[in-house]
Amino acid sequence: MKLTALAAHTPEAVRAALAARGWDAQPAWFAATGIQSLVVLLDDVTEPEREALVRWGAKAGADVLTGAGWALVSAAASRLAPLARPDRLPAGLESLAPELGRFLASYADPPRRWEIAGRTLALDHPVLIGIVNVTPDSFSDGGRFTTVDRAIEQAERLVADGCEILDVGGESTRPGAAPVAPADEIARVVPVVEQLVQRGLGPVSVDTRKAAVARAALAAGAAVINDVSGLAFDPDLARVVAEGGAGVIVMHMRGTPDTMDGLAVYRHVAAEVAAELGAAAARAERAGVARERIVVDPGFGFAKGPEQNFRLLDELATVVGLGYPVAVGPSRKRFLGAATGRPVEDRDRATAVACALAWERGARLFRVHDAALACEALRVAGATTSPVPTRGDRDREREAPLGWNGTSAP
Q: Can you tell me the distance from the alpha carbon of 345 to that of 367, in angstroms, rounded to the nearest whole number?
């Protein structure tokens, strides 16, 4: 008997081994994802539920660690799947099924598209979002693109280097930045948006926390609103996005740019960021924003210190587990300087590495100041993974089983 160790960090190794032995694409992918080990943390667990989990773990061969009010479960995805099915759910665990079912469905069939105003963006490859700051005081490029002509020239460079979306910002959100009045922000942003749309550059996103600015930007042709406050700053913003049929990027931040550094206190940063992002996305859905229009962003550099940013990057799968497409914006941030010793103007290589690491952990959209290096790094990172079979593939492969996850959509 000959033994070969397969890579455990990705289902690709198992998929490739099965494909090499004659399996068709869809059954091979389902089997590979089904035996992939997952770890889920459960909170607000009652004592009867904790006992039921321990009994189930002993019977299913899963590892279950528990404490007062919580449980940590480690098992292959195929072992967890029965807990999400009402017809196979052990008694006493009924409250677990809906949330686990949603998680397993998104794990087996992650979002592959993002609906924005006027079009659909495919997410089967890295999508670069180019930053066009028309502010005098942004931390990296403040004052460089404050005229419409200069902003357009920068946008053209970003598109030439691989950006699919352009993100126009008229208010700096660096630590300690002073707020900008809505009228001033509109005056900075709208002329640039209008010119980008007229020239066919984009789609265009606008980075704003304010409903009035978002309304004016959407009227000028913007397709996406990128809110660094996670829809917490202006309660009317989510409604404006919903009424405009726009896409929205919901970012994690605590407080405001003036106060956020003092709020970077976490016991488990990835879990807490994911929970707060989930609540923000739920606010968007309650306001009428369709789920397929929502992207979440963990907010690197916002209310997080260097160590917390790196821990969040490494555990990005926790945010991916929310089931929304994930955007990241590590570009030129302080935590990259803390690791490399490089000044802000010399962090594009570090940005490219961070984007590649984020892709491997499930991010699909990448907000950058300089697209060329990030595009190259992401092409290399993307080349290490084979395309996940699509729903169309599943429909065409009649012999493909439902697989381990009976909760996924047909």
A: 16
